[in-house]
Amino acid sequence: MANINDYKIIGRKSLKYFKLLSNELEFDENNLTEKQMERFGFYLFIIEHLSPIRDVLDIADIVTDTDFNKILFDIDFDDCGIDAIMIDDDENHIQMYNFKYRDKFKVGGTKLQEIIVSSKFINAIVNENLDNLENKTKEGAAEVIKRLNSNDEYKMSLYVVCNEEFKIENKDHHLKQMEDLYGLEVKSIGLTEISQFVSLRPEPLNAELIVDSDAVMSFSESSLSSSKSYILRLPLSEVIRITCSDSDLRNEYSIEDLTPLSNAKVDYSVLFDNVRGLVVKSKYNKNISETLKNDPTKFFMYNNGLTLTANNINADPVNANKKIRISLTSFQVLNGGQTLRTIHNFNSESPNHLSDYLAKSEVLVRIFRVPEESDLKNNIAEYTNSQNSISNIELKSLRKEQLQIEQYLNEHNIIYSRKTGDTGIDESKTYLHKISMERFGQIYMSFQGMPERATNQKKAIFDKYYKELFLESSFKLEEFPKLIKDYFLIKKEYEKTKDTITSSEQKIFYIIYLQTQIDKTIRELIDTLEETIDEYIPASGKNLTEARRLIQLNFKVFLDTKALPIIE
Fold first, then answer.
1. Residue 48's closest CA among 63, 34, 33?
2. Cα separation of 417 and 437, whole Å?
3. pLDDT of 3-19, one tens digit each?
4. What is the pTM of this model?
């Protein structure tokens, strides 16, 4: 159960998100209370963790909450009880959000008698009639209807999110109608789950354990190496102990009474280097729980296990060589984070689960000795996760060059968000900008002369094009701060022209490219790009949309011919 300290941490984190957005919008905060800023930042914080969107301005675009839009953008419309609408066409997932931000912490949480979702919005979806909706709510509903009427199968989720513990007692009957018609899944997310989102840079975690000699296999890279790593067959009760938040329990390797472990909570800092963030209510988590309850002794065979790294590992034989005592210094779980979380959640469901199931289950644990200054941890994280459903960008997030970018940009007051929820290396610092790895990859690809690929080939940036972009001699850290600042300046310039010119990320990527070729102001470059888009005639002769034109190589060639200076 989360407590008041978790509530306060989430409040501070939410406030930081609002400050990042406020800075980008050049918004005057003086008329807002701190709780109002926390509330608006809470929307950004949650959506970043539950959706694929990572940049605060992009997240703000999908927020439909009435107060948020009225105060920040001077747009007044009825949100109809839906505070944000996000459509992920890559995963065929429609997400809707209903936020409830409490200004004061309440012990024991609360009960929501009903989910407040206006029948106006639900009826618009069911009846495909948008006459009673307006602005972003209407636009979002139209996009939802479009997906539901397509030939593709879309999953629909409604996230009811509150910054305290809560239970849903009843559901609005209109919502039940939508559940029946479209298979809408309602997911309640309270303070306990939200607190797991917070990524704290951890203090080193140490642990002691003792295992049977026949449950250990050691190996080293060569017969001459004194550095050994280990493969263990470990009871899940021991996994809970060495990853719990109680440092005394982590070091109590000879524990016989398992009762204290029934209340043990996972120390989430042990997952700081895990490339995968929290997956809320994944079907795989459910499968893990079912295996633990139905076939605890088979768990070892059904699960891929955990991969750990430690700065140092000491292993000493004890009890006449029948046992091995292992000491882990500064260890992290690089692979198996979902398994670890689910084991701890299963343990917390009942005091009997520990003795009835977890003590009877074992799991394969690989522990690699990786010195702190070594790049090996990054490679282990990438390769041991590569066979799972994890994106290339997540796999690359721990590579040396990505860490260098993060550290260098931090010195220029820019957050380089390698992982979901990053709000800077220094929590006390006021940052100018926040940029995600994915968005920076698109910017840098455009800067390197490939704006036409930055949108429709963005997944290849951290795969096919990774070496070309980040590992060649053209990779220069000193160019990055200005590049990111220029990106946000271009966004602001487009905002000034929104009444006459439609903005898009694709267009911004082209302006970044043009800046490397032509010495003109941003506004002049925008005009040049718009003229070129109007004049371009596709080879097919078809009347393509702007978005389709911009991803064509022929358009890029036409732009170069028309706009770039001729070099004699």
1. 63
2. 6
3. 888 899 899 999 999 99
4. 0.73
